[in-house]
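so i finally got all the pieces together for this one. its four components total, 1467 residues if u count the protein bits. some of the lines might not be protein, just check the labels. i wanna see the whole assembly predicted at once instead of chain by chain like last time, that was a mess tbh
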Amino acid sequence: MQEMNNEKKPLIVAFCCNWCSYAGADLAGSSRLSYPADVKIIRVPCSCRVNPMFILKAFQRGADGVIICGCHPGDCHYTTGNYYARRRMSLLFSMLDYLGIERERTRVEWVSAAEGAKFSAVMNDFAGKIAELGENKRLEDLRCKD
Amino acid sequence: MKKIALSNIDLLYKEIAGAQELYLPVKVAGATNFKKFEDGVEVDIKSLQTVKSAKDLFFPQSEDMMEFKTSGKSIEVIDARKKAEPFVLFGVRGCDLKSFEVLDKVFLAEPVDTMYQAKREAVTVVTLACNNPETSCFCKVFGVDASNPKGDVQATIVSDEMHFEALTEKGEKLLSSLKCLEDCEGKGVEEEKAQIKEKIDALPFVNLDLTNFKGENLMELFNRPEWEELSKACLGCGTCTFVCPTCQCFDIRDFQTNAGVKRFRCWDSCMYSEFTKMAAENPRKNQMQRYRQRFMHKLCYFPSNNDGEYGCVGCGRCVKKCPQSLNIVKVIKKLGGNK
Amino acid sequence: MQRLKTAMIEKATALLTSGEVSKVLGWKKGELGFDVEPAVFTSVDSLVDFTYDAFCGANLSKYLVEESKKEGKILVFLKPCDSYSFNQLIKEHRIKKENVYTVGIECQGKVDPYKLKENGIEFVTDASETVDTVTVNGKEFKKEEIILGKCLTCTKKLLSYDDVISFNEKREPSLDRFEMVKKLEAMTADERYAFWKDQLSNCIRCNACRNVCPACTCTKCVFDNDNSGIASKANSDSFEEKMFHIIRAFHVAGRCTDCGECSRVCPQHIPLHLLNRKFISDIDRLYGEYQAGEDTESKGPLTNYTTGDVDPSDVFGGK
Amino acid sequence: MQKIGVFVCWCGSNIAATVDVKKVAEVLKAEPGVVISENYQYMCSENGQALIRNAIKEHGLTGIVVCSCSPRMHEATFRKTAESAGLNPYMVEIANIREQCSWIHKDIEEATEKAIILGRSAIAKLKLNAPLTSGESAVVKRALVIGGGIAGIQSALDIAEAGYEVDIVESAPTIGGNMAKLDKTFPTLDCAACILTPKMVDCAQNENIDIMTFSEIESVKGFVGNFKVQIRRKARFVDEKKCTGCGVCMQKCPSKKGKNEFNMGLNNRPAIYIPFAQAIPNVAIIDPEQCLKLKNGKCGLCAMQCQVNAIDYTQKDEIIEREYGAIVVATGYKPISLENFNEYGYDTYKDVVTSLELERLMNAAGPSDGHLVRPSDHKEPKVITFIQCVGSRDTSGCGKPYCSKICCMYTAKHAMLIREKYPNTEVHVFYIDVRTPGKNYDEFFRRAVEQYGVDYIKGMVGKVYEENGKLMVQGSDLINNEQVVIPSDLVVLAAAIEPNPSVRKIATMVTASIDTNNFLTEAHAKLRPVESPTAGIFLSGVCQGPKDIPETVSQASACAAKVVGLLSKDKLKCNACVSHSDEMLCTGCSVCANVCPYGAITYVDKEFRIGGGKTELRRVASVNEAVCQGCGACTVACPSGAMDLKGFSNKQIMAEVDAICKR
């Protein structure tokens, strides 16, 4: 037990679109569906607002996993935002994988405002995977670690 | 004098590295640069030149200066300069050795740059004569004798052996400490040097004419119309400045860490438009002006301020590395004189 | 090659003389034979330095961003690969088309000076070429031994021009351009990580790759802009090497024509084109084949979508 | 120097039970820039807001962070609070420490630590906030109602009555929708036509209402107050303006084998027809699939007979464009297709009908003139069995998971009407539950059972099969715990209802969100039930969820009230969090415009000083702030970083990332 406490807890940054996924997270909250406190949510208007820079920045700063949640394709509040996000993230994640960075560290999930349960399940699953992976070493910036 | 068979040279590296840090040309992913010797690295003393010059060891591309740690509303200032432990820099060519003199004039002049000074004092330089100088070499123009570079220890490869001669006290100390070396007479060293000199004299750029680059005609040179044409293809990248052994410009920048701010300095390049950006205006507005600055500095301003010492050592890295084949040789040929 | 050069000089002379153009963008002889440099010629007399040979690897299209803003029409000679960049720049409104007279010239691969050096040639006294060979200083090389990496895989064709100089001599590519990408993809993540760690650790952030890139024409790059939040000047940490190259590749994704200039100019020989080609190969695989610069109107793959696009989780073929 | 105030809300015990709010306030007070940090029981209460207002005034705060519930809940509240104290409303950031912290974590230490981090993140963002002002845009004083059923009709009438112009676009040749097909309505049993058709006539006669039937929405562009809608007016081959609805053409038409849609296909109609007697507009239409003239050029009888020359075989679809300030979606429903329910024999046996078909069979204007007969042999049924919940409350995947809400009541109605008119008929109803909430509903149902002796059997039907000319309904009787088989003459299926399939396309066009069952999502389930989350889009009727007529009408009127509220404004405040382009960085490459879903980005050639007294003409992006909705697609497409989003800038988001990762 003692050792467990000394372990560095994983850090997960979740970018959630305002209209679906952030509302889904709220619903998970109001339904008291828990997920690890490792997950910290950043509200963005749309999944298409998520710049690859933000994702890399999160890893640089010490995040162990980054997840982007948006409306289901076809349901974007802005009609097409998540379609662009889908392409961007597909390519970006594929590139990170190409550079040898664990592909499980990044994820995109579509979570609607009604899917509080899904939000919680996704976060539990993702946090579990990240905990298995351990600390992010391949996209770390040592200057941010001391 | 001492020597070692090239086939055993790994023993030498290991012995030096056992006592202090050893930096020497190492090939990683096909490119050779000065790197720390560690087990398993691919040492490459065959290539004439490293991509980055040896200045990296005294004036690294980026270097921490200080740190500001914040906690709540308080700030703590921490000296982040690393202490320089004695180290050996192995395989320095004549041109790079000469570049240390140039850099010393900048960094060791008052006010002394202590970060540079510490490393400069901690180093023992082992130079290596250039058995096979390349067409892009023109160090001779700047008074360098690539066959006889005078580091703390001078190494010369003669057929399958490397011969060493200590030229300074530091060098003596290093050589005498190394058990893997055997004593020798230095047979063939002078012959090898003579051969190298011959090779150098046959190179295409060794007779470049520098006569026009004098303090007196500064304005005339500055206003020469040829600069426009010379700089036309310049992309404004920093390749020439970053591979150059004598370029010494740097920027001081802050990096925000999770705990506060790290202040570091890093190489800057006069080729960049931001280089001269000031609050009111940017005095160098176009690439021609920036290009002109770089060569005027090396060939006019620097010698004017430093007893005729040029800011170029003729290593030829820019000749090899400029993406669009612009270089100092083309400038000297155009503006230097008619020899 | 000689007859192509002669025809080009004739064309330039004619257009300068007639006043149809006031400048010519081409290549100028160097000091060592292989060190030709891009140059602008403003008079018929100055064309004495004009050259076109097996060493003219540089892509001229990016110079037009600035040159086409200036007064007077400029004649530019575009190799097939240059012309894709040219089209892409036209699409992005970066070149004033009305100020440019384009002449397409054929190309059968350009010599890599580094490979020449590896073959013991550091000074070129004379050179000639056929479709499949180059003879330098009397020594004949097969093209695949000696040309630039970017030329080995080139399948680019002559696109539409104001004028074309061609003798219908086309070299077939000797390699599949995605071969190395596939090889990397087939490696384990650890192997790929080790590969790129070594490669990128050599990066000196000289920005040659960026500054030569015809897709990188931002007035001010995010990496130079202190206000962007990701400005960085040096690789102070291994992270920054990755950040720079990932973001740069991403910014040109869907716009990169695969001209290969980034890898040609890298002083450390980092195979940067493998990053761009990864994006190209993914785009082709996931969204249908797309060649940036093939036209001047189509929507790029990242400014487009279909409702049935694959999810990021399925990019690797199933979760 | 910034002066930031932090206000930590307990939300009663909602937050305070799991998060040490005092510690959060204390720790955040030590953050650079924070000058005051308070905690209070209910920050959103008047007292809580007063605390914030006073602090802003007293300390001259430049921005505030409220650590409380979701910004989706009270961001607007606290923005107003800030504004009333003289602070720009966009200098407010919310740290969501309830839904995303206290409610999902149990460990106080862990939750407190997370709350502090979320607070720091909000402070970090706030430090980069800039005061924003919303632009204004004019409102087009005209509404569009999509769908001409009772919901659309009621909304349109109410809007028109308030003095605004409104267009009804209906895809069928007449307005009236499903309600027009009904016989009687529960719980009062008045005839549907008697109460609906006067409203239809009102619509037709109201000067403010323009009815476009047989028309579809082609595209919707723009935004609240300024929608530009293209409407396809499909060719009906009859000039609407000329046709008097005399009906002569219908009699003369030789091609009489068209399925009568109005009667659920239970009888036939000619190729040229008026959907039903009271159709609005009362104008004929030609079915091109069926018309001999249109199919092979031979006939033309109707044109010869038409006294007013209204027939026009050359008519083409026409696309018109109109501008609207608000759009009401009232696309209604349809019964689900029963192909997944073969066990009930709907496709096999003619005498298995849906409830809506039964409405027609019982209707005086129906195929049997109101005489209830079996479709197969036109004989009066003696035993009728109703099966409830066909496809409703079905989690097997064959039907719909939701309750269709109207079936219990209409089945009771049917049973009652049958027993009333044909007292010798036996009526059985298989049900799962009988749900009758609503004024006078349960009383109605009880009357059916107690007064009219309808046999209600709690249980599900396993299958329907034919035996000796009878439809054998085999089911379980859960109360008597036995299997029953009821030989019936007619079986009526209470098919589930689902949103009109066209709603998905429309939702996409108007950028309204839609749930997994294809019902449109309301902006708030309880507090904003008639608005879509997309500004300017309103929801009327079953498109939002199953409803009966009274509920539909009240929602339609509520919807109209919202529309009228919107149209009564001359100007609308635009979204302040819009994109803007830094012209010094912009290269005019057009990438941003390519991804903008609103067409908000245009390009202009602008002169810029380049030093040395020279200028340069550059193409740069310019954002129409009234049109931009602030999604941010352009900001990521832009490689130079010239395009940024106010309120969610690159630097702000990265500051949040930094703050979250700091540990």
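Chain D is about 30% helix and 25% strand.
The mean pLDDT of chain D is 94.
anyway lmk what u think
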